[in-house]
Every structure is written in C-alpha cells, then in structure tokens.
Amino acid sequence: MTGTPLPADLPDDRLPDVLGKALAGLYTGPARLPARPGGRTEALAALHAWTGAGYANRNFLHGNVSRLSMYLRHGMLGLREVAAHARSVMRGRERDEFLRQLAWAEFYRLVLRQEGARVLGNLEDPKYPARWTPDLPDDVRTGATGLPCVDAWLRHLMRDGWMHNHERLWFAAYLVHWRGVHWRAGYALFREHLLDGDIANNALSWQWVASTFSNKPYFMNRDNIDRYSSGRWCGTCTAECPFRAPYETLEGQLFGGRA
Amino acid sequence: MTGRVVWMHGDGLSVTDPALHAHPDAPAVFVFDRPFLRGTPVAFPRLAFMYQGVRDVAAHRPGLTEVRVGGVAEELAAFAARHAATELHVTRNFTPDFARIVDDLRAACPEVRVVIHEPERLTGYAGPLRRFFGFWKKVEREVLHGDAPARGHR
Ligand SMILES: Cc1cc2nc3c(=O)[nH]c(=O)nc-3n(C[C@H](O)[C@H](O)[C@H](O)COP(=O)(O)OP(=O)(O)OC[C@H]3O[C@@H](n4cnc5c(N)ncnc54)[C@H](O)[C@@H]3O)c2cc1C
C-alpha cells in the first residue's frame, strides 16, 4: 500500500496547512483557500441566490453572469437542475440566452465523448497560415506583459481562479494570434489555475478561438475591449496597444487577410 | 452478500452523483492522483476546492467516505480489498483518463466487477457533432422548454 490517507473533515482554517503537507510537491503556488468555497451545499446556495436578472448584459465584464461554472465542472451542480432553476426564475430572452450557454457546455462534453483524447490536439487545420510556438512566454506566465488589460486578465485567472468569458476570449486571441503561441500552452495555463478548468470546455474553447474547431479565428480590437470592459483600462492606458486598429487592418496583420 | 464500494472522482463531487446516490451506505473513496499531479501543474486552490467538495459529500452521507493520495487504480484496488468488495461503482466521465483507470483496475483485480453509472445529461442528443449551431437546432426545444427529447435524436 503506497498511498496516504487524509481526514475527510478538515475545517477550512486547517485545510491549507494539512492538505498542503499531504500534497507537497504535487501543486503550484501557495497553499491557500479558493476564492469561492467548493461543495454541494455552497453550490446550492449560489444557485438559489442567483436570479439571472441582468443576464442580458452578460458580454460586459460588469454583467451579471452566474459564476456557477466551477460547481458545474465538479458535478456539485448538474446542468439539468441549473436549467430547471433558470426556467423557473428567468424570463424571455435572458432565460433563453442563459439556457443556450448551458447547451454549449453540454455540446463540448459530447464532443469530448465523441473525439476522446483527440480534443487535446488540433481537431482541424487552422484557417490561416499559423506558425505557433509551443511554449508559454515568461512575461505571460508571470502576468507582466506590460499591457494593463492583459495583466489584469491574468491576475483574475491566478488570484480568483475564474475569468469572465470575454476575458477568456480576449486573452486566448492575444496569446494565439498576437503572440503566436499554440493554444495548448494557454489550455495548460487555464487548467492550472481555473476552478472550472476541464478538458472539454477548456480545450475546445481554445480551439474555437484558434480556428482549429471553428470556421475562422476569433479576434478583437481595442474598441471591443474598451466597450465590454466599460472603459476599465483603455482610457488611462499609455502602453503601445497592439489591439488599436480597425478589424480589417488587424485581420491583414494577423492572418494575412485570409481569415 | 455483495460488498460494494464507490469511487468518487472530480466530475461528481456531490451526494447527487449517480453512483454515490445509488449506494449511500457503501464506503466511498476519492483519490488525489499523485502520478497525474506530479506531471501536471495544478494550483493549490483548485485542489482545495475539490477537497471541500469531498468533505461536503462525507458530511451528508451515512457511508464511510475516505480521501487518499496515490495512484488511482492501485488505491481503488486496495480500497475494494479492504472492504471485501466484489463491486466497485462509479459514474462515467468522458475523459481519456477515466477509461484508462477503469482498464487498469479491471486488469489489476478481475474479481471486482466495475459497475458504471451514466452521468446526468442536459439533452438526449446522441447523434454526431460538428458545430454548435447544428447541435443547437436539434436540442433547442428540449433545452428551452425542458421537453422530452425530439424524436429522431438517436
Ligand atoms: C479560452 C476559453 C477557455 C474556457 N475554459 C473553460 C473551462 O475550462 N471550463 C468551463 O466551464 N468553461 C470554460 N470556458 C467557457 C466560459 O468562459 C465559462 O464557462 C464561463 O465564463 C463561466 O462563467 P459563468 O458560470 O458565470 O457563466 P454563465 O454565463 O453564467 O453561464 C452559465 C454556464 O453555462 C456554461 N457556459 C457559459 N458560457 C460557456 C461557453 N462559452 N462555453 C461552454 N460553456 C459555457 C458554463 O457551464 C456556465 O457556468 C472557456 C472559454 C474560453 C473562451
């Protein structure tokens, strides 16, 4: 018998110390509690507290999204019960939009079932002449790219273990298209830090941005970031902005105009 | 009498997990996968989040719930042996690791029958998949209204 037993009732105040020792050498970063507590009881409280009001603004960073993904990821909530809750408390287009997002999670799970380990490699050829390098650059790993918006997204990832969907999309596009890094390096960084990090949603969303599981690459420009972040960074930013151009110009720069 | 144990993994950390739900009194085990974690960087809060999930399960079921650190298939085999179990129940997940661990376990202890419970699904869709849009058109009614799956899904 090689394994080590652990008590199943460690209170939160002892958890980082005791679990940290038991898992020594098996994790990165400091041993600390997650930004949101795990468990079915917490998950149900979060579900019941969520009314979905304001979900129409879900694409804005300040929009009221559910933040239930980490509970869904670990089966602390099921897609069915979350859908049933949404059908009973939400109305109209907001409700439909939310249910459609749940269907994305179901879709990705089923793609994983269909494709198996193939989802960890390019499912299709990229739709532009991509030359991606495999390794995550150091400035990205340390969250010190010098771009205030990108560094903030990385801070959210590493501190909170959660990012807004738009931040994930922007960051993925930045890493793959602007920095020319293979999506797998981004997938691994997300898997390391996200409380909701999984294989299906994570790998397939990266592939969707990279265009290896979609018909064209996803990208954004500064206006898009400024708008959906409600001016959080751009107004005061003095960095040399790689996103500042009309879409057509960026398309030519990034994809040779062929995307 | 058939001795049963339940294997709890990271996709089903809730008393509502089908395998756990079917056998509330059976001893259950969750294993932090040492070889996997050695080779794959994972930040601590994620592991603590999972631990909190297991702890909540342990507090809400009558059966014994254990947490271990080690190789998953070996730990499961030893757990089944300690409890004289002839059946190990688990809920399927679609990760490549799941299938590998089940194969390893079956090879290591052929005397233990591995019983796989199906996970809960949002839809009854069973056809081939390519793009979300095509999928959505097929499941839209079912997802939006909670209707029974449309005919012709399978
Ligand atoms: C590059 C990239 C990587 C991602 N990696 C993950 C991941 O590892 N795990 C993960 O759960 N999600 C991932 N997503 C999808 C999405 O960003 C998150 O599910 C969502 O932001 C979670 O926040 P929420 O719970 O507040 O979402 P809400 O908007 O409240 O949506 C409710 C639920 O619907 C599902 N959902 C919402 N948007 C999506 C989406 N675009 N794709 C799939 N399911 C969705 C989630 O289960 C979510 O909890 C990724 C997206 C991108 C662009």
UniProtKB/TrEMBL annotation, chain A:
Highest taxon of source: Bacteria
Cofactor note (record): Binds 1 FAD per subunit.
Domain Cryptochrome/DNA photolyase FAD-binding: 98-219
Keyword Zinc appears in the UniProt entry: no
Keyword annotations from UniProtKB, A to Z: FAD, Flavoprotein
InterPro entries (UniProt xref): Crypto/Photolyase_FAD-like_sf, Cryptochr/Photolyase_FAD-bd, Cryptochrome/DNA_photolyase_1
Residues the entry annotates as binding FAD: Y55, F98, Q101, L102, A103, W104, A105, E106, F107, Y108, D196, G197, D198
Site feature (Electron transfer via tryptophanyl radical) residues: W132, W183, W206
Pfam families named in the record: FAD_binding_7 (PF03441)
Record-level Gene Ontology MF annotations: deoxyribodipyrimidine photo-lyase activity; DNA binding; FAD binding
A GO cellular-component term linked to this record: cytoplasm
GO BP terms: circadian regulation of gene expression; entrainment of circadian clock by photoperiod
Needed co-factor(s): FAD
Family annotation (PANTHER family): CRYPTOCHROME, SI:CH1073-390K14.1
This protein's name: Cryptochrome/DNA photolyase FAD-binding domain-containing protein
TrEMBL record, chain B:
Pfam families: DNA_photolyase
InterPro entries tied to this protein: Crypto/Photolyase_N_sf, DNA_photolyase_N, Rossmann-like_a/b/a_fold
Domain Photolyase/cryptochrome alpha/beta: 5-144
Protein name: Photolyase/cryptochrome alpha/beta domain-containing protein
